[in-house]
Amino acid sequence: MSETPRTTDVATSDADLLDRTAIAVRAAGSALRERFGEVVRHQSRGELMRALAVNDDTALGILRPRLTRLRPDAGWVEDELDGGALPPGEWWVVDPAEGNVNHLHALPEWAVTATLVRENQPVLTAVHLPLTGETYTALAGAGAHLDGRPLHVSPTADLGLSIVATSQARPDEDEKVVRRVGSSITAMLFDALVVRTAVPATLHLTNVAAGRIDAFWQFAGARADLLPGALLVTEAGGRVSDAQGRPWTPQSESFLAAAPGVHATAVATLSR
């Protein structure tokens, strides 16, 4: 993490800042869309990681100067896999290619995200899906929107009628976390209607905010995975906690976002 240099193009309000942030993630998404479509098989983990880095650098080359001009004094989180609390002040938490591995395999589930965090609370976020052209936005206290239309979580009150989702553990994850993910999926297979398992987390959370699925959970996870969706779901009327129902922070070891009607049941299922 490093602090960004001072420049002068500062937005006059958080609402104005969100509008300009959405423009920036759309521009970065357009650049990644031009690189999308061909499956390239990689012969080693190192080769794959270099290809992922090229995508990241392509988007960051657009995002970083634009967002820096908007908030010159805000810090910048370089590594989208970082977790835990941030130092005091404002920080840009950016995932330049959320679902990057999907992009490299010509799968459609990927996005560009940018979230402004102020004193460890997400203030605004923009999530752009370049292949559909959709842009999800949220501003603390002002609601969540999809291309300007208000979002609302599902009214479902029965986990047995719910579609739920989780993201798998990342490569080389701790064995304890991997086993916890597996047991939670098994528990949900007994209690929920349908269980979806895929990456990235952010796209599941946009679906929770839009009322398309009823709950999402994850163990561990990085700030860039969860902060955008946490704000979207909260502003769409959902509940965000850890898997035991306690308040969620970036230091938490688990995450749950759900429609209010199924949140308590989801906690009970994940706590078995």
Share in helix: 25-40%
Regarding quaternary structure, what we see is: single chain
End-to-end separation: 37 Å
| Main sheet strand line-up | 1-2-3-4-5-6-7-8
User: Which residues form runs of ≥5 with pLDDT under 50?
Assistant: 1-8
Mean pLDDT: 92
Number of helices: 7
How much strand? 15-25%
Radius of gyration: 18 Å
SSE order in H/E notation? Answer: EHHEEHEEEEEEHEHEHEEH
Describe the model:
This protein has 272 residues and is α+β, with helices and mostly antiparallel strands. 38% of the residues lie in helices and 24% in strands. The strands form two sheets. The protein has an eight-stranded mixed β-sheet with strand order 1-2-3-4-5-6-7-8. A five-stranded mixed β-sheet has the order 10-9-11-13-12, with helices on both faces. Helix 5 packs parallel to helix 6 (223-235). The longest helix is centred in the first third of the chain and has 26 residues, at 45-70.
List keywords for this structure.
7 helices; 8-stranded mixed β-sheet; alpha+beta; 272 residues; disordered N terminus; 5-stranded mixed β-sheet
Write the layout of secondary structure elements.
Layout: E1 2-3, H1 14-34, H2 45-70, E2 75-77, E3 90-98, H3 100-104, E4 111-118, E5 121-129, E6 134-139, E7 143-146, E8 149-150, E9 163-166, H4 175-191, E10 194-197, H5 201-209, E11 215-219, H6 223-235, E12 239-241, E13 254-258, H7 260-270
Parallel strand pairs: 2-3, 9-10, 9-11
Antiparallel strand pairs: 1-2, 3-4, 4-5, 5-6, 6-7, 7-8, 11-13, 12-13
